[in-house]
Amino acid sequence: MSANPYANLLKNIEVNGEQFRFYDLTQLNDPRYDELPFSIRVLLESAVRSCDGFHISKADIEKILDWKVQQFNKVEVPFRPSRVLLQDLTGVAAVVDFAAMRDAFKRLGGDPNIINPLCPADLVIDHSVQVDFSRVAGSLKKNEDLEFERNRERFEFLKWGANSLQNTTIVPPGSGICHQVNLEYLARMVFNEDGLLYPDSLVGLDSHTTMINGLGIVGWGVGGIEAEAVMLGQPICMVLPEVIGYKLTGKMPSFATSTDVVLTITKHLRQIGVVGKFVEFFGPGVAELSIADRATIANMCPEYGATIAFFPPDDTAINYLEQTGRDSYVTKYTEAYLKEVTLFRKDYQNSKEDPHYTQVVELDLSTITPSLSGPKRPQDRVPVSEMKTDFKQCLANKVGFKGFGISTENLEKSVPFIFEGKEYVLKHGSVVISAITSCTNTSNPSVMLGAGILAKKAVEKGLSVPPYLKTSMSPGSGVVTYYLQESGVTPYLQQLGFDVVGYGCMTCIGNSGPLPLEVVDAIEKGDLVAVGVLSGNRNFEGRVHPNTRANYLASPLLVVAYALAGTVSIDFEVEPIGTDMNGQNVFLRDIWPSRDEILEVQQRCVIPAMFKEVYSRIKTGNERWNGLKANTDLLYNFDPNSTYIKNPPYFDGMTVELPPIAPITNARVLLYLGDSVTTDHISPAGSIARTSPAAKYLTERGIAPAQFNSYGSRRGNDAIMTRGTFANIRLVNKFMSKPGSMTVHIPSGQELSIYDAAQLYKQENTPLIILTGKDYGCGSSRDWAAKGPYLLGVRAIIAESYERIHRSNLIGMGIMPLQFVEGQSADSLGLTGRETFTIDIPTNIVPSQRTLVHADGKNFEAIIRFDTEVELEYFKNGGILQYMLRQLLKKNQK
């Protein structure tokens, strides 16, 4: 590694009498820079600033500069984000790995004080709270008490991380949703590192990390291994993306909300096809959108499949920093720097500022109409005016994304039931969950206040919500509570059942809690298609609640409206939402607030002091958090009896010296798989089945089935996660006659669970491989999709092709990805998977080298898919964590 060859681009800038330095990309004097989309300029700046000749080379900078041509060539470029955002379910495994690294570093003779994230890491505990209580006094306290009771062990461990790990901020439970806390508090927009200015950018362990794109910050969700690599100062590799320019024109109608805009955009971009691409917004319509509106649109990015949904920094972004209580000292150098390097959009009316885009699509905001999405996917937008008709069609349609297969004779089925001494009736379309929840909308004062004003008007008309309907509100931060109270709408929301039940990611991720037993019985008795309406971003079947077969995404205003109606089978244009105190019909239009009406309240009630007040308490925590007795030692004291937190065996037997490269000899095939095996097939997820190896492990340790919890909650225990690897009931293994988590132990012919078979092979000292087809590891990036196979004893995978990030993750765990040469497959080579495999690995291995695989006489060539020298170094070290330990040991010994 050498000195940065772009040091000559360092330039000084003076702001308020203080000198700062920055890499001035305009001094590249390359006309291609001026044509780059703003998001690509951020990638370029990171590469220029981090260029070291090894991880990032001058050739990489040339690829990014030549984006206009290279975007179509699927070239890979490195990106070193400025920070990492974690949430508690996914982030706990990263903290476990750092604790384990410290233990290993000390054993190898190093100072464990050195083991810390090398770039800032922010972890927000927001995914553990559930709606166990709602519409009763003290719901918030009761839910938070249960949250701590269920998750105490994890929370104590995370508090150790907060106390012990440097360069790490851990935001306590009860503070809000990570993406809203990120937007309102954690976001830097521009970093100031000892006077060196550069753009804020990040990767996050949650797919909706893209919400920060609304503030002009490049960031997206990744898997745990990529996140840990960034935390350890390493760049991640990415395909240089196409950038779709999304032009916004016109103004939103007075009755439309930002939720309506995002549902329209989601459907539009899904139809266009933007998977793996950047989307960048421009045009005069952008100036009409607040940062909260933009963040709502960017939050839904995973639902339309893009990598990011970027709004370049502009005056609105700078104003937002001020409105949310950021220091004026920071906002001044932020604005000055961004303008100096042309990362700032000055005028949306001036088309001369428009960069070059791969493709341009357009939306006229004046065409937006009130909408929902559902009943099973975020991209299936339904105009409110068509909702009744669309839902009835869905009932009758054959089972699918827009169908439930209800027979004609059962379409009008109704089930009476008694609740709190009064009779009610449930039908298809009855709303049983109505939740103002999730990061998508709770960061947006316009829709939150809109819901409050609508609630006020409804109560004043004498309207009410059926008492059996589970209503809840889980704001993304405490700031929401402040401005709802300040505006005077809180008592009206509470009267309709929308009291605050927690500050976190709740109903949207399935933490919706139980429904009343009377309601569940009625739904099951009539086999009814009951409905959840939520202001979230995901409504996949089975996600929100097992008893709501239909789930619709909607603005907080429509969440309240459908709760009042009690059904989605209503045409608001011609049917009243209820009757007033005089028995007169009340229509939704009678209580719907205008955009101007909401804006007036917002300007009056959302003030910087609220943000300063709420976030001043972030680091001091709360009574429950402060009462946790957390280990304060430098090394974490792993409890051998814990079923939540365990010291993983990644570093067992690790030496300071590099182990010699050796062939994989006499390996057996653990699994023989086909095409499109996803990370969901591989990675443990969901509830722990009572007959699974993980259940057996827990039972042996005295854990009752009711306390099994989920794989997600136990991500910090490798013994449970390894047992859940490949445990998907839909996994198709060619050794078996039906899908599931079983395989064959080849030497004995026994049919065993995949985990038990792997353990038997381990006892026999037999290395394992996996045979598979095309696109192995497609789907969301999941760290345990690589960690699990490694801990099962898998040394190599031979596939026809790989999903890019998963291939990188396998290397990060020391697993060799091999690829059949073009035109060959396990089938074409006549492999049965029952052969004994030996894989030659040259000692002088180079990237993309071919090697010979011996399989009981069926010898064939395969490509070793180490595509860069960096990946090769990771593999030689046994994985990225081992590589970093050895690098840090070298530095420590100098």
Automatic annotation (TrEMBL):
One annotated GO molecular function: metal ion binding
The enzyme's E.C. designation: 4.2.1.3
Aconitase A/isopropylmalate dehydratase small subunit swivel domain residues: 695-821
GO cellular component terms attached to this protein's record: cytoplasm
Keyword annotations: 4Fe-4S, Cytoplasm, Iron, Iron-sulfur, Lyase, Metal-binding
Superkingdom of the source species: Eukaryota
Enzyme category, top tier: lyase
InterPro entries, per the entry: AcnA_IRP_Swivel, Acnase/IPM_dHydase_lsu_aba_1/3, Acoase/IPM_deHydtase_lsu_aba, Aconitase/3IPM_dehydase_swvl, Aconitase/IRP2, Aconitase_4Fe-4S_BS, Aconitase_4Fe-4S_dom, AconitaseA/IPMdHydase_ssu_swvl
Positions of the Aconitase/3-isopropylmalate dehydratase large subunit alpha/beta/alpha domain: 62-566
Cofactor: [4Fe-4S] cluster
GO biological-process terms attached to the record: tricarboxylic acid metabolic process
Subcellular location: Cytoplasm
Gene3D superfamilies found in the cross-reference section: 6.10.190.10, Aconitase, domain 3, Aconitase, domain 4
Main subcellular location of this protein, as a coarse class: cytoplasm
Family listed: Belongs to the aconitase/IPM isomerase family.
Protein name: Cytoplasmic aconitate hydratase
Species name: Blomia tropicalis
